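Technical note accompanying the year-one report. For the benefit of new consortium partners, we illustrate the data format agreed upon in the data management plan: each record pairs a sequence with a structure-token string. No post-processing was applied to the example shown here.
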Amino acid sequence: MPRIERVGFAPITPPVAQRLWFDTNRWPTFVDGFGHIVSLDESWPEPGAKVVWESGPAGRGRVTERVTENGGNAGATQVFDKQMTATQAARFEPNEDGCDVYLSLEYELTSGGPLRWLTDVLFIRRALAMALERTLRRFATEAGDEATL
């Protein structure tokens, strides 16, 4: 399975960053392509809980995420949409100014026919990497706002 990894920074402690990462009320400010919540389990963000969200008009459509891990300065979700299944993981490591944010996406394309591997190499992998980078940049901004509260 292809895997994309990116690293960002947040000027807050790892536990605060982890809480912010799973705060669906804040997703519009940092999750790339996010539109709105369709449904959210009451137990979110406990393992097993699920959120269904819709992307913006040019995005991925309906996305379902199920929490597989949330604790110890890390979190992960299984992600499903019409084009792929994936595991997205975030890890928050302390540093002297806040924390480093490690974000990874391990995915498998579920559509695209027999040449989907070529489409992945030429287009999709790059687009996903850029989306992770945008999310991390916006997360840093949101974390900065959180630090001033």
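Partners are asked to follow this layout when depositing records. The helical segments are 14-21, 27-30, 116-147.
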